[in-house]
Specification:
Belongs to the GSP E family. With 466 residues, the chain is α/β, with parallel strands linked by helices. Helices cover 46% and strands 19% of the residues. It has 22 helices and 13 strands. The strands form two sheets. It has a seven-stranded mixed β-sheet, sandwiched between helices. Strand 4 and strand 5 (193-202) form a beta hairpin.
């Protein structure tokens, strides 16, 4: 019974009422016949039109190219790569450090206003005859004038000024070595003088001491050294020791002795120094100078190698340890003349100092070795003279046969007495040397007493002319 409503479903045919849309066809103002076919036919062409539209769709597909254009817009990433190219400025940043490289040169202008260059200070010391220049952060510059420290009329040194001075005489790697080890030894040369350098660190900051070394080597006559120095320098083999405290003129005396040998004897001389102070030019002798750290890495290696370099004379900067003494004695015993230095105040103390490097069991053998090898021990000091200059006084031990016996037996007191009466052999004590300077009017009594190792003995000599 419900079927009755189903027939009404037949109104579906009315659904074709869509033909009603044909009513718009008249809106085209086209003849009615044409509109009906066109809708189907035109729909066909319109359907055909879609192919163009489909072509348009490919053209619409062109947007994908546009999308590719978007990747081209993505080309900005390449632009981003261009940005890294813009990142090329990092090289420019490297250029900045290169621009930063100038700071070392600007470091010289980095000196505080009114402060001189280091060369100007050294020139001042040279012109005035000063021996040392003392510079340090937080301190006024000072110089040593014939043993006395004097203060220069400059303000306290700041860090930048000090580093600018350091760069005048040291390379960057040497400055780095100093900062790493907090100590540095070296030397440099100016037209008017050679300079020994020592840089070190203190509680107040970095400090620097410069020792001026004349380019011209003074002769024995100019230094007014005793005649015995020539006889000692004429020796063909053995051990010569020049001793004294720091600043006592040991290097100057040894340079004069080497200069004498260079002028008088055809020898081969090898020096091993740390650093090289006086520079010698070969004359009758052939002179080869080696600096530790520059021409050899280790002092001991250079000394051992010297024995294989056909030397006649080996100049050792300092007898600093047991191994050096052993090698020097070996060289002296094998036909070479060895010259070295020690920081001792007298000839007898020099023997004692060498023996202290050895154990009690070794000392007897070392006394024998020293007795057989020794030529002379020259202990030296400097004192201020009445004319404001400085003069050297000496304590000289010559290894005569009697002295050899005393050394073997360890009779140091007897050696001291023998020195007092050994003028004929060229021996002299410190007190006798000071007394001679006093008699010549070159030093005052006060100076003689101040420098004397045994003031009571010297006082008796001054009063009684003994």
């Amino acid at each position: 019974m419900t079927e009755t409503p189903r027939p009404p479903v037949q109104p579906v045919p009315p659904l074709p009422v869509p033909p009603i849309p044909t009513a718009p066809l008249p809106a085209g103002k086209q003849p009615l016949p044409a509109p009906p076919p066109p809708p189907a036919a035109q729909a066909t062409p319109r359907a055909a039109a879609p192919p163009p539209a489909v072509q348009a769709t490919p053209r619409a597909a062109a947007p994908p190219p546009a999308v590719q254009a978007t990747p081209r817009a993505a080309a900005p990433p390449p632009a981003a790569q261009a940005t890294p190219r813009a990142a090329a400025p990092p090289p420019a940043v490297q250029a900045t450090p290169r621009a930063a490289a100038p700071p070392p040169p600007p470091s010289n202008p980095g000196r505080a206003p009114g402060m001189p260059s280091l060369e100007e200070l050294i020139r001042l010391a040279y012109d005035e005859g000063y021996s040392d220049v003392h510079l340090g952060v937080g301190e006024q510059p000072r110089m040593r004038d014939r043993g006395q420290m004097i203060i220069l009329d400059y303000p306290e040194v700041d860090y930048n000024t000090f580093m600018s001075w350091l760069r005048e005489i040291l390379k960057e790697d040497e400055i780095l070595k100093f900062k790493r080890e907090l100590e540095f030894d070296g030397a440099t040369q100016y037209e008017f003088a050679r300079v020994r350098i020592n840089v070190f660190d203190t509680l107040r900051g970095h400090a620097l001491v410069l020792r001026l070394i004349p380019i011209k080597i003074l002769t024995m006559e100019q230094l007014r050294l005793p005649i015995i120095f020539r006889d000692v320098s004429d020796a063909h083999k053995g051990l010569i020791l020049v001793t004294g405290p720091t600043g006592s003129g040991k290097s100057t005396t040894m340079a004069a002795m080497v200069d004498y040998i260079n002028k008088e004897h055809p020898k081969h001389i090898i020096s091993i120094e740390d650093p090289v102070e006086f520079v010698h030019q070969s004359r009758r002798s052939l002179i080869k100078q080696r600096e530790v750290g520059q021409n050899t890495h280790k002092f001991d290696n250079a000394l051992k190698a010297a024995l294989r370099e056909d030397p006649d004379i080996i100049l050792v900067g300092e007898m600093r340890d047991k191994e050096t003494v052993n090698t020097a004695l070996k060289a002296a015993q094998t036909g070479h003349l060895v010259m070295g230095t020690l920081h001792t105040n007298s000839a007898i103390k020099t023997i004692e100092r060498i023996l202290t490097l050895y154990t009690a069991e070794e000392q007897d053998a070392m006394r024998v070795a020293i007795a057989e090898s020794l030529v002379a021990i020259i202990a030296q000091g400097l004192c201020r003279t009445t004319d404001g200059k400085r003069a050297a006084f000496h304590d000289i031990l010559i290894n005569t046969e009697t002295v050899k016996d005393y050394i073997r037996q360890g009779k140091n007191d007897e050696i001291a007495e023998l020195m007092k009466n050994g003028e004929y052999d060229g021996m002299i004590t410190t007190n006798q040397s000071l007394f001679n300077l006093y008699q010549e009017g070159r030093i005052t009594e006060e100076t003689a007493m101040e420098m004397s190792p045994v003031p009571n003995e010297l006082a008796m000599m001054l009063r009684g002319r003994v």
